[in-house]
Design a protein that fits this description.
By secondary structure, the chain is α/β, with parallel strands linked by helices. The chain has 26 helices and 28 strands. The protein binds ligand C2E and magnesium ion (2 copies).
Length: about 750
């Protein structure tokens, strides 16, 4: 079977040595080579081919020759060497069909679809069938006598071009597939560090994997109204740049990188270099700059896919920036830059968990702060708050934690001996100078030692508040430590519960009032929130903020809540019959109700019994409840939602803890907490938070309503932000059911 190739006698074959054609231009320095595998059992053929092709450059790249002298050897080489572009294959070797067997193995067993194959044979009689050429994707078939050098070069050039095209198509299909699968992971990241790392990894994978150096730079997120630009820093880095993670960009010792970033930042777009890419994504303070450098030049497909990926990165970045802002506001008081109440409570919790009992919590209140605010204006009030924060900070060592708990109240947490009330008072013996005015500050202090604590951080703070109110009542000493005797309020709560239980059973003294919810665009009423009122047997009106917590604590709210929902549905039916139709009814629901196994059944009965379309009922749940991880809560929400009832998150913006969770909940609306609405002057933290919530709503596809709107200015600010609905005294306070229809003609 063995053929006898006799190159010396084959003049045409020898032609390949003489027939020197064009050289194909100069190679790109650093460009990879084309791998060419020569398979032939005749050593002369190897040397003749190598000699003929050795200086050839195709598409800017040189050739690299691999040699195999049998089909078996070729197969081993193919298995272990990636990126073989072309196989120049002798058909007849150890067997007459050894070459064709190898072709089958390459395509079917090695699954190698991109490598191009040029068959050669010295014996025309061994020409393969046409089907073989077609089925095994053979590029060319030539008898050696046909193969002059020119023909060989032409054939090889065509094969390499088609290899390159197939590679690009395969690569882009694979990269696209990876992109489609991995890009959504960018949208679920919450911290900028994780997000930046993920974005950079995806980009690097696209550009060629491990050999890529890259940085992801952004600005440290300041509070929305911080002055001045924070410097760009490296939020994530890969390869050679990895050591610069966390540092300012200016510290990265790489002129190419700094130059590319600067040019990219100026143009605000993308910058493609031979083997690098710089991207500018996002806008404003949340903008990020990426720079990646691969070890090889980037082809067109990679560049285009990088553009596609940069769109996902921009969207993800917007998400993360919103999350970060909310995270920031969730734990930091933007005015003073100090930890806020939520953060302070968790600090106390941490202390209790670690068993650090020799600690004291002090709650310090600036007396008459609201009077000072009213008399001197908000700006001076804000300056005063900052001055007090500064004085407290300077007066205690760094181990003592300082927080701004609310309005004019500050918290201290530290060792018993250090957190001394006299020390606080001594700090304020000198006046504070604010806007050129000297103001004497009179602090009151309520304290609790953690050894006395019974419960968590929130309870400690509650007890310190009780102590503080005692201190305010004292004439001589302006501070008090909490003691058990101060807890007589528990007695009062018991009496309140007793009265409320009677009222619920007898349905006496309970009523609902309704507050309009107004669509900003049309100025018309679109719904009502039902609010519970209670007048006890002695004729006193007890505010819901006092009796609802007691009802929740005692689970009486389950019965009370059912009455509220049923009454609200009946009322909606009555208004419909009176011609005031199409309104939505919002009803507040407590977590205790939501956890009740019969809640869904109860709610369905109330709504169906009254013949109300469930789509017109909205349940308002508090933010902490929405974020409760409990499966039962989520399950109840899903059931209510599939019944058609919609769900709003009440008092949104202050108590948030795990926003990622929000995305998974079946919500319809966010209701901006009235504390942010109250503070809606331009540039204020309230405005920033309200604006962030509206954007977040848009992003999650949720409607947004603002509560507690009292002035035209607040309304205008909310309208500009794109908030859809408002509720508040500006339009109307809550009114009795009978007075509601008269409001329907009114316009905002
Ligand atoms: P909420 O659900 O956030 O209700 C809004 C509260 O803001 C109502 O207080 C309302 O009277 C008040 N409000 C409305 N407009 C303005 C305004 O322009 N400015 C100001 N400063 N306040 C405004 P209300 O009626 O005292 O209710 C307090 C809370 O009691 C409610 O807060 C809700 O959490 C709870 N609540 C009321 N009724 C029920 C109920 O039936 N079930 C449950 N579980 N909770 C209820
Ligand atoms: Mg509400
Ligand atoms: Mg509310």
């Amino acid at each position: 079977m063995k053929k006898r190739a006799a190159p010396a006698a084959d003049s045409d074959f020898l032609d390949i040595i003489d027939d020197r054609a064009e050289r194909g231009g100069a190679p790109d320095p650093g460009a990879p080579t084309w791998r060419l595998l020569i398979v032939d059992d005749e050593p002369d053929v190897h040397s003749a081919t190598t000699f003929a092709l050795k200086d050839l450059i195709i598409a800017g790249r040189k050739l690299e020759f691999l040699h195999a002298y049998s089909a078996a050897e070729a197969r081993r080489l193919m298995e272990t060497t990636p990126g073989i572009a072309v196989v120049l294959l002798d058909v007849v070797m150890e067997k007459g069909d050894a070459g064709l067997q190898l072709v089958r193995a390459i395509r079917d067993e090695l699954g190698c679809a991109d490598t191009r194959i040029i068959l050669r044979t010295g014996q025309p009689g061994y020409a393969p069938e046409l089907e073989v050429i077609r089925d095994y994707d053979i590029n060319d078939y030539k008898t050696k006598s046909e193969l002059t050098r020119t023909r060989l070069v032409t054939s090889l050039t065509t094969a390499i071009r088609s290899y390159e095209q197939i590679r690009m198509a395969l690569e882009s299909a694979q990269a696209m597939d990876r992109l489609v699968r991995s890009a959504p992971s960018l949208l679920t990241q919450r911290s900028i560090g994780e997000f930046a790392g993920q974005a950079l990894r995806l980009m690097a994978e696209l550009l060629g994997g491990d050999a890529v150096d890259g940085v992801f730079c952004t600005r440290r997120l300041p509070p929305g109204d911080a002055n001045g630009e924070a410097p760009l820093y490296v939020a994530a880095a890969l390869g050679a740049f990895a050591p610069f993670r966390g540092q300012d960009v200016a510290a990265v010792a790489d002129a190419g990188l700094l130059d590319a970033l600067e040019r990219c930042a100026l143009s605000g777009g993308r910058l493609h270099e031979n083997n690098g890419i710089a991207l500018c994504v996002g806008a404003g303070d949340g903008r990020a700059l990426l720079y990646l450098r691969a070890s090889q030049p980037l082809n067109e497909v990679v560049r285009r896919l990088a553009d596609v990926l940069s769109v996902s990165i921009a969207t993800g970045l917007e998400n993360v920036t919103l999350f970060q802002q909310l995270d920031f506001f969730a734990y930091i008081d933007p005015l003073s830059g100090l930890p806020n109440r939520a953060r302070f409570v968790s600090m106390i919790d941490d202390c209790l968990r670690r068993g650090e009992a020799n600690r004291t919590v002090a709650l310090i209140e600036v007396d008459h702060f609201s009077d000072i605010n009213a008399a001197l204006g908000h700006e001076t009030g804000d300056e005063l708050l900052k001055a007090v924060a500064k004085r407290l900070r300077a007066g205690f060592p760094a181990e003592v934690a300082l927080a701004r708990v609310s309005g004019g109240k500050y918290g201290l947490l530290g060792e018993n001996a250090t957190v001394d009330p006299e020390r606080v008072l001594a700090l304020f013996e000198r006046p504070c100078v604010v806007d050129g005015q000297s103001l004497m500050i009179q602090p009151y202090i309520g304290l609790e030692r953690l050894t006395e604590a019974d419960g968590g951080g929130a309870d400690v703070l509650k007890n310190a508040t009780i102590a503080l109110s005692r201190a305010r009542g004292e004439r001589r000493q302006h501070w008090q430590y909490f003691t058990r005797e101060m807890q007589t309020t528990a007695q009062e709560r018991l009496a309140l519960l007793h009265d409320l239980r009677h009222a619920t059973e007898a349905k006496r003294g309970l009523s609902l009032v309704y507050q309009p919810q107004v669509e900003i665009a049309s100025g018309k009423i679109c719904g009502a929130e039902a609010l519970l009122r209670w007048q006890n047997v002695r004729g006193q009106n007890i505010p819901p903020d006092r009796f609802i917590p007691v009802a929740e604590y005692s689970h009486l709210i389950i019965e009370l809540g059912e009455w509220v929902l049923r009454s609200a549905c009946e009322q909606l039916g009555e208004w419909d019959r009176a011609g005031v139709s199409g309104l939505r009814m919002s009803v507040n629901v407590s977590l205790v109700q939501f956890r009740d196994p019969d809640f869904v059944g109860m709610a369905r009965r109330c709504i169906l019994d009254c013949g109300i379309d469930p789509g017109r009922i909205e349940l308002e749940i508090t933010e902490s409840m929405a974020l409760s991880e409990a499966e039962t809560v989520v399950d109840t929400m899903n059931k209510m939602k599939s019944f058609g009832v919609s769900i709003a998150v009440d008092d949104f913006g202050s108590g948030y803890s795990s926003l990622g969770h929000l995305q998974r909940l079946p919500l319809n609306r966010l209701k901006i907490d009235r504390v942010f609405v109250k503070d809606l002057t331009a540039g204020s933290s309230g405005a920033t938070i309200a604006d962030t919530i509206v954007k977040l709503g848009h992003m999650l596809g949720l409607a947004v309503i603002a509560e507690g709107v009292e002035t035209g200015e607040q309304l205008d600010a909310l309208r500009r932000m794109g908030c859809q609905e408002v509720q508040g005294f500006y339009f109307s306070p809550p009114v009795a059911a009978a007075d509601f229809p008269a409001l329907v003609g009114k316009r905002l």
